[in-house]
Amino acid sequence: MIHIPLMKPVIANGFPGWTSDTDIIDGLTDIGAYTAPNVFYIGTDMYLISGEQFGKFTGWKWSGTAWVSNTSIVSGLIDVGTYSSPNVFYIGTDMYLISGAGNGLFYGYKWSGTAWVSNTGIVSGLTDAGTFSVPSVFYIGTDMYLIAGNGSSSFYGYKWSGTAWVSNTSIVSGLTDIGGFSSPNIFYIGTDMYLIAGESDGVFTGWIA
Q1: What is the pLDDT of residues 54-79, one digit of tens each?
Q2: Which end of the chain lies in a sparser environment, N or C, as judged by fewer CB atoms within 10 Å?
Q3: d(CA 11, CA 23)
Q4: Residues in the chain where the model's pLDDT stays below 70
Q5: What global pTM score does this model have?
Q6: Which residues pair with 134 in a beta bridge?
């Protein structure tokens, strides 16, 4: 099972804190308002796809020193209307993308090797989040989960059954109302799992599982 992205090695002396780093955004251009980036790997190559206010997707590939525009990595992705919010993940060796949108729906794709192909199966079971759906897919062991934010600041949880997403309230237990437009992202530092969420006032809220 490939758990890309977001596993990091254990930090021996604890988490040192975030430090500003302008080099890691070198090459990323202004694509408008409400940018929503997602970084992922294909083999050893690192890519970034970002959503934005008008529902489009823009792609880059990491050169080793900067992000270089890459239209191939967004081939097949269609305009979702408004506020595209892509999340790329793997099931085995198959790569998928789920995007939220301003209308609260979810749009699914599978990578063919050369382009994204619409895939309704990967969003089966995901319900209308109301407005501004923002998905984040992650693993706990071999179990796959999705937490989505929305325009009213709610969090919705799902667990993958193997064929569809099934509502799972326990995975969002402890997550509180943080204001409008909640946008969660789940990741690991060693064996510790964290969630950082953005919201409409531009601040961040963090949790540890």
Answers
A1: 999 999 999 999 999 999 999 999 99
A2: N
A3: 22
A4: 1-13
A5: 0.92
A6: 149
From the candidate CATH numbers 2.115.10.20, 1.25.40.10, 3.90.170.10, 3.10.129.10, the one assigned to the domain spanning 23-208 = 2.115.10.20
What would the two tokens of residue 150 be?
């929305």
Rounded (10°) CA dihedral 190, 140, 127, 196: -20
* CA–CA distances in Å: residue 168 to residues 54, 88, 115, 156, 185: 31, 21, 31, 8, 17
CA 67 to chain centre: 19
CA–CA separation, 114 vs 18, rounded Å?
Answer: 35
Kindly report, residue by residue over 1-16, the tens digit of the pLDDT: 333 444 444 555 677 7
Hey, where are the domains in the chain? 23-208
Reduced to 3 states (helix: H, G, I; strand: E, B; else coil), residue 61 is: strand
**Could you count the other beta carbons within 10 Å of the beta carbon of residue 1?**
10
Beta strands (DSSP E) in 29-162 are 36-42, 45-51, 57-62, 67-69, 85-91, 94-100, 106-111, 116-118, 134-140, 143-149, 155-160
